């Protein structure tokens, strides 16, 4: 089973109380249930982009014989909270889980980021499997996505983090992909085009398959 986690949701913005509620982040910390996500200067929203890409990845993986669960099945609801997004992957015993996002960085910054938990509740075997998933995704993203590794955060596209609940709480191999920077004109153009989204979705699907083939 593969779990795809399209970040945020279309109803988050109008449900501030629900999405600001504190939930476990892992290792004794708490954070907000979810956020609204970012958007392009023209209003194209990250939650919509994330969901569009997730559907493409799902279709691609299913066509290639894998079973897929999404953490949300529409783009008009609220949440689910980030800890629940992790729990969905954990209870499915997913072979791999990928959170799909786009960043809202400085206008001059561009490229993809692969976020990994510095520490996850699954322990060192899950942390090293998640890193192997990131390495596989780095290869396919560099070759297929149309994006280069981020030039403004992390190192060569890799970004270890300690504040991402969905990664801290995972007991299955899991990473978060920032598919470019919506505040950058060239990344946004790719995100807004059907062909650009198809390239990024293919890179995610191929990255998962590359990881599973290891
Ligand atoms: Zn996001």
What key attributes describe this structure?
7 helices, six-stranded mixed beta sheet, about 210 residues, alpha/beta, 8 strands, two-stranded antiparallel sheet, single chain, Aminopeptidase
Tally of separate domains: 1
* Full CATH superfamily name: Zn-dependent exopeptidases
Beta-strand proportion: 15-25%
Order of helices and strands: EHEEHEHEEHEHEHH
Query: What composes the largest sheet?
Result: 6 strands, mixed
- State the CATH architecture: 3-Layer(aba) Sandwich
Radius of gyration: 15 Å
Overall structural class, as computed from helix and strand content, comes to alpha/beta
- Write down the overall mean pLDDT: 98
For the termini, the CA-CA separation is 16 Å
Using the coordinates above, name the CATH class. Alpha Beta
Number of helices: 7
Helix content: 25-40%
Query: Could you say which overall geometry the principal axes of the C-alpha atoms support?
Result: globular
Low-confidence stretches: none
With strands numbered from the N-terminus, the spatial order across the biggest sheet is: 4-1-5-8-6-7
CATH fold-level assignment? Aminopeptidase
Q: Write down how many β-strands occur, each being a DSSP E stretch of 2 or more residues.
A: 8
Bound molecule kinds, no repeats: zinc ion
How do you describe this structure in short?
With 214 residues, this protein is an alpha/beta fold. It contains seven helices and eight strands; from the N terminus they run βαββαβαββαβαβαα. It has one domain (2-212): Aminopeptidase (3-Layer(aba) Sandwich), CATH 3.40.630.40.
